[in-house]
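tool_call predict_complex ligand=glutathione
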Amino acid sequence: MTIQLYCFGESGHSYKVALGMELAGVAWEPVFVDFFSGAHRREDFRAEVNEMGECPVLVDGELKLTQSGVILDYLAPQTGFGGKTEEERRDILRWILWDNHKLSGPIGPARFMQNFLPVDKHPDEVIRWHQGRLRVSYKILDAHLADRDWITGDSLTNADLSCCAYLYYPEPFGFNRADWPNIDAWLNRIADLPGWKHPYDLMPGRPSDRGL
Ligand SMILES: N[C@@H](CCC(=O)N[C@@H](CS)C(=O)NCC(=O)O)C(=O)O
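tool_result ok
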């Protein structure tokens, strides 16, 4: 049975999983979640799809999984992106946890507030605070990538998938690739892999659908 991924184009957390499956040639299909109409907050979504009210959600036959890091780990035997040794597996987990807390975690709301809220509702102080914290994270990632092609080991892993996802989105959220040359080169390296697709070409839904 084809794997289903509940997702939407603007969802960086969903993109991590969609991109991993696409790069590995795993058969999957998207199930569009109308996030901007509040579909993920409805009682039926929480009851039947994800009690946490979030995307992504992966359905593989009888199995349903949430949290992008857990899903990436589940898919590792199929994708081969789980690392080659126990030590690397732990290092991948370390970067996934860091990403959820310090990179993708704050980028999600910063990008949402700056781009998808009406201008008169922009909480500018909060956006600036997130952007300041995120600069520290970009610096950490850029330094880590100074003398290596991939976050762990010698090829793409779930650590790269988790950390790269939001950085491909075009909407401004305080991240300028030109300021971070090692991140920039790494994003190009990933985008050069056969099968790579931009999030808006891989999952249904994009800002222009809503006239943005
Ligand atoms: N840690 C979660 C984060 C998931 C998440 O925040 N997803 C966003 C979409 S990108 C969402 O559904 N947010 C709903 C909300 O915060 O109400 C993961 O890695 O899957």
